[in-house]
Amino acid sequence: MIVLVFVMVCGVYICSICLKQINTSTNTGLLTVQMIEKPCPEPTIEQWEIPYVHYPKPKTYSRAECACNPVRNFAILSMQRSGSGWFETLLNNHTNISSNGEIFSVKVRRSNISTIVETLDTIYNLDWFSSASKNECTAAVGLKWMLNQGLMQHHEEIVEYFKTRGVAAIFLFRRNLLRRMISVLANSYDRDAKPLNGTHKSHVHSPHEAEILAKYKPKINATLLIANLKQVEETTAKALEYFKSTRHIILYYEDVVKNRTKLIDVQDLLKVPRKDLKSRQVKIHKGSLSSQIENWDDVQKTLKGTPYESFLHADYRRRRRRRRR
Ligand SMILES: *[C@@H]1O[C@H](CO)[C@@H](O)[C@H](O)[C@H]1NC(C)=O
Ligand SMILES: *[C@@H]1O[C@H](CO)[C@@H](O)[C@H](O)[C@H]1NC(C)=O
Ligand SMILES: *[C@@H]1O[C@H](CO)[C@@H](O)[C@H](O)[C@H]1NC(C)=O
Ligand SMILES: *[C@@H]1O[C@H](CO)[C@@H](O)[C@H](O)[C@H]1NC(C)=O
Ligand SMILES: *[C@@H]1O[C@H](CO)[C@@H](O)[C@H](O)[C@H]1NC(C)=O
Ligand SMILES: *[C@@H]1O[C@H](CO)[C@@H](O)[C@H](O)[C@H]1NC(C)=O
Ligand SMILES: *[C@@H]1O[C@H](CO)[C@@H](O)[C@H](O)[C@H]1NC(C)=O
């Protein structure tokens, strides 16, 4: 009797396990196939680096023979007229880097945190197409993001996203905020006046065009000058504070111009092979500031004796004199 009961219990038990297995194997059939599909060898990296390495599977195409090339995510965080356009063309000169431009300049994409996350997901999954998209062997993918494009507003969620998705932040700021202000004013003048055959250009590729754009000398409102400079400084400090817990690097435009070792630092951060990077962009405003501002005397008087006085004199040149042709 005992043996019979034992056999019956065993039978029922085995049956139930069988049923369960049939169920799970039919449910997860797709999943297991995908797991088998990805036999990428473990990359030889340090333990702490693992969160920063990704193997995206784009929905729209196959990464083909590069499917096992790890990809790192980055974001250039900057402010308008701080050299980030130029910096991005340098990064995009690398065969393995795709920086997709100022994606959040389009308002709907930054209208709330869900649209932001959705956009970022598309970029980091290599499904975003722009002129910067490279072939399947992209090893670093990112975008350029201005602080006033939803970044400060949604900073908490974005920091969280950066941490979970292993996004490295590349801060690019300008030291001389007075020069930046001239560039902002000149650029907004150009948007209306369009001296280059009626087209608005924020960046130019020939000395001739640069010369035309540099002809305009903005007049700076001396009353608001100090307050404006202070506000930019505060925004920068706040951004650094918000994002200090993410993996990041801080660069200054002037330093990158003077010292190309900074570009090596960036390539090392993104773990791409080191290359000599080139940009075709030509600087618009060069030379001393006194020749670039209409009311130079006012500006000089206003800044004398303030912490910003050094902006009046500071200049920067690349050591070797072949910065731009
Ligand atoms: C088997 O799967 C169905 C639906 O897929 C589910 O409703 C059912 O509870 C599962 N049975 C077991 C034993 O897991
Ligand atoms: C990088 O710049 C050089 C010089 O302008 C150019 O010849 C080369 O094709 C560029 N490479 C890429 C990947 O854009
Ligand atoms: C976010 O914005 C998009 C586009 O403006 C809108 O369709 C969507 O409903 C918004 N989502 C939330 C949660 O507000
Ligand atoms: C960079 O791109 C080249 C050619 O597109 C590819 O052969 C190489 O594996 C890539 N390097 C990395 C680190 O992904
Ligand atoms: C503007 O027009 C002049 C001739 O009128 C031409 O030489 C020049 O290439 C044009 N520049 C651009 C940016 O279209
Ligand atoms: C500077 O800005 C203030 C405040 O907007 C304005 O009242 C003043 O007229 C401006 N000064 C000049 C010279 O434009
Ligand atoms: C250039 O930058 C590197 C680090 O990015 C630094 O170690 C080096 O001292 C700098 N060189 C000069 C001349 O400032």
TrEMBL record:
Q: Which UniProt keywords apply?
A: Signal
Keyword check for RNA-binding, yes or no.
no
Question: Which segments does the entry list as coiled coil?
Answer: none
Q: Where is the signal peptide?
A: 1-16
- Gene3D superfamilies on file: P-loop containing nucleotide triphosphate hydrolases
Protein known as: Sulfotransferase
Question: Can you name the source organism?
Answer: Rhamnella rubrinervis
Specify the taxonomic lineage.
Eukaryota, Viridiplantae, Streptophyta, Embryophyta, Tracheophyta
